[in-house]
Write a structure and sequence with these properties.
The protein is 13% helix and 38% strand. It is mostly beta strands. It is globular and about 65 Å long.
Length: 431
């Protein structure tokens, strides 16, 4: 690292990731909102037309509304649409694929297979006003946030899921519906989150009572909005420590997109990031990003996540990966989805083998509206440091989510939920 000008970065990164390892208790916060409206639910699976592989994190949206959801890691999705809207189509999009519009009348009751076709776009002649230098394009995209992203407050309904696994087995599962009070992108005002509904189950025996705990929470996903919070990854000090280059251009939602690679320079010692920024060719706005922390310096990388641990335990960061997507509505972009995947290797001093724990967090905005008058409920407001507390009862209630759209659970999560439900049934019988 050149000089000492960059010593602030570890603190910034720690606030971005907002994952720490420590033991904590939290009182349960949960609320339920009833609705009388009739909903129609549609299910499907999104696959690639050539290799027939599932498309993960594909966007499924309802035209002329702000209702949307995301496909899971098996390409599956479910979406609930109010019957009163009279919606007749769904729009399905995925980075690098042609957007497909599906007539709802053609969908069956069971899983529907929806095929997307890849597309390649050559942008050499499309935008003559775009900077020819990748670094300059990224600077322009970050500078554009006040003009290209929403300028008014918005209230977003979002679904949040957090899983902790020991090796490949689920040790903890948390789900929640939250309201995000999203602040305009041109201001420094921070977003706020209100907890609407939540449930959680943790198998502490599987976590080995190791006196340390992975912390997630909805803010950990929200802070991945690198356009709203650019200083969490591209600070004024850190920007010059990255190399930027163009990759093959692509398309998303029928819009041409520049792809910019970025990576940490070799002479920079503090852990930074590498990945891809997807920049809209028309608006020069960042509309998607996927990146990961450089963990070559494992000691320094782990310091970004570790707050407290027992003396006889060594913790090492294995991976730290991030993804964030934005959507266009009324000619303005806004936060839509983020996913974080962290893995740590834990080794006890007197034990022969180490164990790997994985934290997977995702949050998807499923509906939103401009907010002119609504204020956050102070009793349900959550802090950035919150760990959603244990509440297992919801997993046995098939109608728990009511009107809310959720991310379809994958097979491993479905299996975990079934096991939890069986455990609760046994407890009820014994009582």
């Amino acid at each position: 690292m050149r000089g000492t000008e960059f010593q602030k970065h570890p603190k910034i990164a720690a606030r971005l990731l907002f994952f720490m390892l420590f033991l904590v208790n939290m009182s349960t916060i949960s609320a339920y909102q009833n609705t009388n409206q009739t909903l129609i639910e549609y299910k499907g699976k999104i696959i690639d037309s050539e290799k027939r592989k599932p498309l993960i994190f594909a966007d499924i949206s309802v035209p002329t509304t702000n209702i949307s959801t995301i496909s899971n890691k098996e390409g599956k999705f479910s979406i609930k649409i109010p019957e009163r809207l009279g919606i007749s189509t769904l729009s399905i999009s995925f980075l690098g694929y042609e957007t497909t519009v599906v007539n709802l009348s053609q969908l069956e009751q069971k899983i529907n297979i929806i095929v997307l076709h890849p597309t390649v776009t050559e942008l050499a002649q499309i935008s003559i006003n775009a900077p020819k230098d990748a670094r300059a394009l990224v600077k322009l995209a970050l500078k554009n946030r006040g003009e290209k992203y929403i300028k008014t407050e918005a209230t977003m309904t979002a679904f949040y899921r957090e899983t902790i696994k020991k090796r490949k087995k689920n040790a903890s599962l948390t789900e929640a519906v939250v309201k995000i009070y999203k602040q305009p992108y041109h201001t420094s005002r921070r977003d706020e989150i209100e907890l609407v509904k939540s449930r959680k189950n943790t198998n502490y025996s599987r976590l080995d009572t190791i006196a340390l705990k992975l912390q997630g929470g909805p803010f950990s996903a929200l802070f991945s909005d690198i356009v709203k919070y650019p200083d969490y990854i591209f600070t004024k000090e850190s920007f010059d420590f990255y190399d930027f280059s163009f990759n093959t251009s692509t398309e998303i939602n029928d819009r041409n997109v520049y792809v910019v690679n970025f990576k940490q320079q070799e002479n920079s010692m503090v852990p930074l990031y590498k990945g891809n920024l997807y920049i809209d060719a028309e608006t020069f706005a960042i509309i998607s990003a996927d990146y990961e922390l450089n963990i070559e310096n494992k000691v320094e990388a782990t310091k970004l996540f570790l707050k407290k641990k027992p003396r006889n335990v060594d913790v090492e960061t294995v991976t730290a990966q991030y993804k964030v997507d934005y959507k266009l509505s009324n000619n303005k972009w806004h936060y839509s989805y983020s996913n974080l995947q962290l893995a740590f290797r834990v080794k006890w001093a007197k034990k022969l083998f180490s164990k790997t724990y994985t934290l997977d967090v995702e949050m998807a905005v499923t509906d939103w509206d401009n907010n002119l008058f609504e204020k956050i409920n102070s009793e349900r407001k959550i802090k950035p440091s919150i760990i959603l507390s244990d509440e297992a009862s919801g997993f046995s209630d098939l109608k728990f989510w009511g009107k809310f759209n959720i991310i379809e659970p994958e097979k491993s999560i479905e299996s975990a939920i079934r096991k939890i439900s069986k455990q609760l049934t046994k407890i009820d019988k014994n009582d």
